[in-house]
Amino acid sequence: xxxxxxxxxxxxxxxxxxxxxxxxxxxxxxxxxxxxxxxxxxxxxxxxxxxxxxxxxxxxxxxxxxxxxxxxxxxxxxxxxxxxxxxxxxxxxxxxxxxxxxxxxxxxxxxxxxxxxxxxxxxxxxxxxxxxxxxxxxxxxxxxxxxxxxxxxxxxxxxxxxxxxxxxxxxxxxxxxxxxxxxxxxxxxxxxxxxxxxxxxxxxxxxxxxxxxxxxxxxxxxxxxxxxxxxxxxxxxxxxxxxxxxxxxxxxxxxxxxxxxxxxxxxxxxxxxxxxxxxxxxxxxxxxxxxxxxxxxxxxxxxxxxxxxxxxxxxxxxxxxxxxxxxxxxxxxxxxxxxxxxxxxxxxxxxxxxxxxxxxxxxxxxxxxxxxxxxxxxxxxxxxxxxxxxxxxxxxxxxxxxxxxxxxxxxxxxxxxxxxxxxxxxxxxxxxxxxxxxxxxxxxxxxxxxxxxxxxxxxxxxxxxxxxxxxxxxxxxxxxxxxxxxxxxxxxxxxxxxxxxxxxxxxxxxxxxxxxxxxxxxxxxxxxxxxxxxxxxxxxxxxxxxxxxxxxxxxx
Amino acid sequence: xxxxxxxxxxxxxxxxxxxxxxxxxxxxxxxxxxxxxxxxxxxxxxxxxxxxxxxxxxxxxxxxxxxxxxxxxxxxxxxxxxxxxxxxxxxxxxxxxxxxxxxxxxxxxxxxxxxxxxxxxxxxxxxxxxxxxxxxxxxxxxxxxxxxxxxxxxxxxxxxxxxxxxxxxxxxxxxxxxxxxxxxxxxxxxxxxxxxxxxxxxxxxxxxxxxxxxxxxxxxxxxxxxxxxxxxxxxxxxxxxxxxxxxxxxxxxxxxxxxxxxxxxxxxxxxxxxxxxxxxxxxx
Lengths: 556, 284
Prior knowledge:
The structure holds two protein chains of two kinds. Chain A is mainly alpha-helical. Chain A is 68% helix and 2% strand. Chain A has helices spanning 2-20, 25-38, 66-77, 87-112, 121-138, 153-176, 180-199, 202-212, 214-227, 237-261, 269-283, 297-319, 324-344, 346-349, 383-405, 408-418, 420-425, 430-456, 466-479, 485-500, 502-506, 508-522, 531-537, 543-548; strands spanning 355-356, 373-375, 378-380, 458-459. In chain A, the strands form two sheets. Chain A has a two-stranded antiparallel ribbon with strand order 1-4. In chain A, strands 2-3 form a two-stranded antiparallel ribbon. In chain A, a hairpin with a 2-residue loop joins β2 and β3. In chain A, α19 (466-479) crosses α20. Chain B is of the alpha/beta class. Helix content of chain B is 38%, strand content 24%. Chain B contains eleven helices and eleven strands. Chain B has a six-stranded mixed sheet with strand order 7-8-9-3-10-11, sandwiched between helices. In chain B, α4 (120-127) runs parallel beside α7. The longest helix of chain B is centred in the middle third of the chain and has 20 residues, at 144-163. Chain B is globular. Classes of the chains: A mainly alpha, B alpha/beta. At the A-B interface, α15, α16, α17, α18 and α23 of A face α3, α4, α5 and α6 of B.
C-alpha cells in the first residue's frame, strides 16, 4: 500500500521535474501564492459555533492566530527560490509545518466547530497551497546544509542577541497562551520554524558565533534568564515551575558529569538529590522536623552536598571497579534503597508523610526568600527569588563543568570512555577518576537537592522514585550529553512542557519515550551537540568533515 | 657500537622466574629477563609463544602466577609478605597497570589502541596525565599554576610529536591517521609518560619497507635518549638489524638469548619456527 503510493508519487515527481525543470519554481511560487492568500482568508464559516480557539478571529478576513504562523512559514519557504544551500530541507520543513497546522485546524473545526460545514475557504486554500509548496520543495536539488560565511564581529553578536531574544520572546508568548489547542498550534509553528532555520544554517552560525564570543554570549543568555521573571507581570505560576526547572537543570548538569563526561550510567541519581534534600529539611528547623536544629542556609548547602558526596563515594568505591552494566544495576538498587529507608526510618524522616513546613530561605542580610520583592519597579512573586538563586547555582555549576572538562581530568575521562584499557596503560588511575566523576555528580545533586526542598516546602520519599532518575537521565540525553547547555534545555523541555500541556501529563512517559526513540534514530548526539560526541556517534566521517560539520557546539 | 652490553649498563628491568598459567596452559614458563640501560632487546618467537602475555605480565595487564619483576629498585611484581599477604589473601603482590606506567614502563599495543576520537595532540596529552598533578580545585580555580602546567604539558606534547614527525597532523583525529602514523603516534603517547623502559608490541606490523626503516631509525633515536626498549616483532630483518640482544620465546619458555648473530646462527631457533622432521636434531 505505502510502497504503491511512493511508486506513484515518484513517477509523478519525475514528470513534474521534466516539465518544470529541476528548480520546480513554478510549483514553489504557486504554493507560496496560495498560502499567502490563505493567510488572509477567513478560516471558519460565519455563524458556526466555533469560537476562535486559536487566536485571531478566524471567521473574518485578516491575519491572526494560525494564519500568522502560515504567513511566516510561507515567507521562510520562499527562501527555496534562492540559491542557498540547504534550501530543500528548509522549504520542506516550512511547507510541512503549514500542512500540519492547516490539518490541525481542519480537525479542530470538524470536531468542535460542528462538522465539515464549519470549515472556511482559507483552510482549504492553505491545505492545497502547502501541498503544492511541499511538492515544489521536493523538486529542489539535494544540497548540503548551509554553512554561512563567517560574519564580522558585530553581526555575530547581533545574531546571538537576536536568537536568544527571539527564543525568550517565543517562550514568553508560548507560556502566555492559555488554551491547549492554541499552544499546540504555536508549538507546531515553532518546531517547523526551528527546523527550517536550522537547515539554512542559522543554528550553525549561532553556535559558531557563540563559540567565538563565548563570554558575550553567556552574558546575553544570563541577561535573558534574568529578564524572564519581568515578563510574567507578577504572575507566580510560571515562576514556580521555572524555579523547579532551574533546580533540576543544575542537577542534570551534575548527572552530565557522570554520564556525559565520564561515561558512567547512573540510574539512582535522584537518591543524591534526595539526600541533599533530607539534610536540608532536617537542619532547617521545619515545622515537622525530627532534628531540632536550625543552621543557616549557607552552611546547610555545603553540608547537604558533603553528605551526598559521602554516599556517592560509598556506593561508587566498590562498584566502579566493575564494568558499566554492573554500575547501572548497583545505582538502580541504591536509588531504591534510599527511598525505602526514607519511608521506613520514621524516627528521622517521618516515613511516607515526609517532613512538611520547611521554612523559606533566609540570607544573612535579612533577605527573605518567602516574600515578594520589588526589583526595577516591578513586584516579583516570591518564587522569583528561588529562580534567581537557581540562575546563580546553574552559572556556578556551568563554570565548574566547563573548566573541569577542559583540563587533564576531562581529557582523562574522554580517554576512559574511548578505551579504558589503553587509558590505564597510559598511567590513568581509571577507578579513581571514575569515582571522582561519581562524587562530583553526587555533590552537585546534593547541592541542588538542598534548594529544591525549600521551594516545595516539604519533602517526602515518593518524590524520589526511580522514574525521576530516568527523567533526569532523559533530560541529559535529550539535551545533549557532554554539553553545558544541553541538560538545561532538556530539563526545561521535560519539566515545563507537561506543566503547560496538562493533557500531556497522562501520556508523559509515553511521549518522552517516543521522543527519545526518535532522537536516537535521527540525532543520537542530542539536541545540542558536543563536537566530541558528534565524532563518537558518527564514526564514518573523516576528520575534516567531522570537524567542520554544522550544528556543533564545542563542549564549552 | 658493541653488540654485547649484557654485563655493561645498569640493569633497568629484571624479571626472575616469571610464569603465567591460564588454567591448564602455561603461557609463560619461568622466564628470566634482564634489560640494561639504553639497550634494545628483541623478543621473538612463533605465534602463541607467549610474547604478548609476557609483555602483559611486565606491564601489569595480567598478574603473573609466580616470579619477581623489579624496575630499578622498585619491585613491580613479587611474592607477598606480611600484612599484605594477610590482607589480600594472595601469595603475590602486583601493581596495577597505571601504577606501573607511573613507575616507568610504557607500552604500545599489538592491535593499535589509540583514543580514536581524540586528536593526535590530545592523545599525547593523555600520556602526560600521570606526570601532572593538577586536581579538581586547580582545574576550576585556574590559577597561574594550572596555566603553567597546561602550557608545559602542551609544549612537551608538541616536542614529542615533532620527535615522531607528526607535528603537522596534531589536530587530526587519531582514527583518521594513516596506519603507520597511528603506530608512531602510539609511540609518542607512550613516550609522553616519561618512561625508562619502552615496550613495543609489533611496531612494524602492517608497514611497508620504507615505513619499517623509519620505525627502526625512530627506535634507535629513542634508545639514544637513554631509554631501554623491548621490541616484539616478527620481521627478522628488523630485529636483527636493530637489537643489541635478542631473546627467543618458545611455548612460554625462553629458548635462547644472545646477540643477533648468535641467535641467527642457532639451529634451535630455525627449528622452533619451521619445525623439524621427527627425532632429527634434538639438540645441537
